[in-house]
Design goal:
Strand content: 15-25%
Shape: flat
Helix content: 40-55%
Order of helices and strands: EHHEEHHEEHEHEHHEEHEHEH
Strand order of the largest sheet: 8-7-9-10-6-11
Structural class: alpha/beta
Low-confidence stretches: 170-178
Radius of gyration: 24 Å
Number of helices: 11
Number of strands: 11
Largest sheet: 6 strands, parallel
């Protein structure tokens, strides 16, 4: 049965402050053109009025996204391509699409807004839960938003220290062959955490706070035997921990501390046969009070648009391989039964 087609409608918007419209519409109306391209609607502006024509649902998404962006401009927020795409994602995913600008994160160098409903949920979870698992593919903002939230809380005095950690998966074999002292050997594994910090704080402040101990970046092994109080602790690439390592890390949680654990369960680099600590923790802590889990998918990817398409392509390939393996096992089982 063919699903009914959405009826076409025309929606009219009127804006009170004409001075905001050049930025809302974009140079030569490029923002309006992008909305037309993404939603298949027609936008016509006349003075401070805008006519939106198209399928019922898409016209409403365009209206709600533009309303959110206009309200953001009234509060002093800029509109760029990333912000526009984020507004469209919010509007498409949340019905009326009201974008709560209270979900924004403020750091010394930038204001960071969630670019998808899942990112907004993640920021709220990081602010309200003691332990948050952020799961999903590369480019969804799992680590970046956790670091941003930690910096925001450090600047506002809610915590006294940030501790960033990653497992150095190859430490048992290959790390010793790298040149330099221990810090120089492990720094390449921790570089993404430094990059996130430098995106939010001036470089001299990053180095000053690292020297004072307010910010610590260390391999997972350095966490053993410690109690981390009044800290925001982030474990990145957690899919490469073992259950023993994960338990060790989670039990470092001290008084007035928070933890964020991020990982991608499709990118496990543990040796063959090793159990994944992240999978084990998710199963063990399911339903535990004070623990939140936010699952991202390819629709949350906020890097280059090609990244989302790459993630989807690999997901399709993995699904096809899994289907073929299952069919091959079923065929082999049938052949064994027929011989017996």
């Amino acid at each position: 049965m063919t699903p009914p087609r959405e009826s076409a409608i025309t929606v009219q918007m009127q804006f009170d402050d004409n001075s905001l419209l050049p930025e809302l519409f974009g140079e030569r109306d490029r923002n309006l053109e992008r909305i037309e391209e993404k939603l298949g609607v027609a936008l016509v502006s006349r003075g401070n009025r805008l006519m939106i024509s198209g399928a019922d649902g898409n016209a409403e998404v365009a209206r709600n996204a533009l309303d959110n962006l206009y309200r953001g401009l009234q509060r002093g927020h800029a509109v760029d391509t990333a912000t526009l795409d984020a507004a469209l994602r919010h509007a498409a995913a949340s019905g009326k699409g009201r974008w709560e600008h209270g979900d924004d994160i403020h750091t010394k160098k930038r204001r960071i807004s969630p670019r998808s409903p899942n990112q907004a949920d993640y920021i709220r979870a990081l602010r309200n839960y003691d332990l948050v698992f952020g799961l999903g593919p590369a480019g969804t903002g799992k680590t970046y938003l956790a670091v941003a939230t930690a910096v925001d809380m450090l600047m506002s005095g809610q915590i006294e220290r940030i501790v960033l950690s990653r497992p150095a998966v190859e430490a048992g074999e290959r790390l010793g062959f790298l040149p330099g002292d221990l810090k120089e050997k492990v720094d390449p594994y921790l570089r993404p955490l430094y990059d996130a910090l430098y995106d939010m704080l001036p470089g001299d402040q990053v180095m000053k706070r690292i020297a004072s101990g307010e910010i610590e970046i260390a391999p997972l092994a350095f966490m053993r035997g410690r109690t981390l109080a009044r800290s925001f602790v982030i474990l990145d690439e957690a899919q490469n921990t073992t259950p023993v390592q994960m338990k060790m890390f989670l039990t470092r949680l001290g008084e007035d501390a928070r933890m964020a654990v991020t990982g991608d369960l499709t990118q496990i680099d543990l040796p063959a046969g090793a159990e994944c600590g992240l999978e084990d923790a998710l199963a063990t802590l399911d339903g535990t009070e004070g623990v939140a889990t936010v699952q991202f998918d390819d629709s949350d990817v906020v890097r280059h648009p090609l990244v989302a398409r790459i993630v989807r392509a690999y997901d399709r390939r993995d699904h096809q391989r899994s289907t073929r393996r299952a069919a091959s096992r079923a065929k082999a089982d049938d052949e064994r039964r027929s011989r017996s």
